[in-house]
Amino acid sequence: KQWPNKEEEIYDCVLNEIELPGKSYKRKIFEDDELSLLDEGVSQKGFLPIGKIFNVIKDPQQIQSTKNVPGDIPFITAAIEWKTHNKASFKNTEALVYVVGAEGSLGNCHYINGDFTASSLCLILTEKDKKQHPVNLKFYQLYFESIKQEVRKGLNGWKKGKSKQSISQSRFENFEIPY
Questions:
Q1: pLDDT 10s digits, 126-172
Q2: CA-CA distance, 39 to 3, in Å (whole number)?
Q3: Are 165 and 106 in contact (CB under 8 A)?
Q4: What is the DSSP string of the chain?
Q5: Shortest CA distance to 32 belongs to which of 154, 171, 163, 167?
Q6: How far is it, in rounded angstroms, from Cα 156 to Cα 53?
């Protein structure tokens, strides 16, 4: 019953970069073009690692877009527009699908609620613990989209390999976000 007011306040803070004493504050997530992660196990007040808030997994089918078999199930890839597939990896699931393996689309984040399959270039985020850390996935989809450019600019700390920029699952899970 209080969530709509809190949600509006959170949107205002994130989208308008507003600080509220005792509730929110800005922090630099990049320093000298490097991703600035806190020491492991140490959290800023109001921030938690993504892996403590969300289950973070890869789609078990590990489908590449080029090997897709079209069908009736939404197939979420790195692209903004979705494709279809013939088999669902996830059924009746509310999730975020975050792009970590396609250089030009890094940081794209999709919200879905239903049956779907995701590309091998994506991570699937689902709510980890409704009692301890309840989340509004639509809010976090907007949040991840709002920091997409910063993530792309600060990839020095997230790169794996030399030729293709990507975000490793372990680095992503340890990145702290507002909660």
A1: 999 989 889 999 999 999 998 887 776 655 455 555 556 778 888 88
A2: 32
A3: yes
A4: --HHHHHHHHHHHHHHT--BTTTB----SEETTEE-PPPTT---TTEEEHHHHEEEE--TT-B-GGG----SEEEE-SSSS-EEESS-SEEEEEEEEEE-S-GGGTT-EEEEEEEEEEBTTEEEEEES-TTTS---HHHHHHHHHHTHHHHHHTBTTT--SSSS----HHHHHH-EEE-
A5: 154
A6: 25
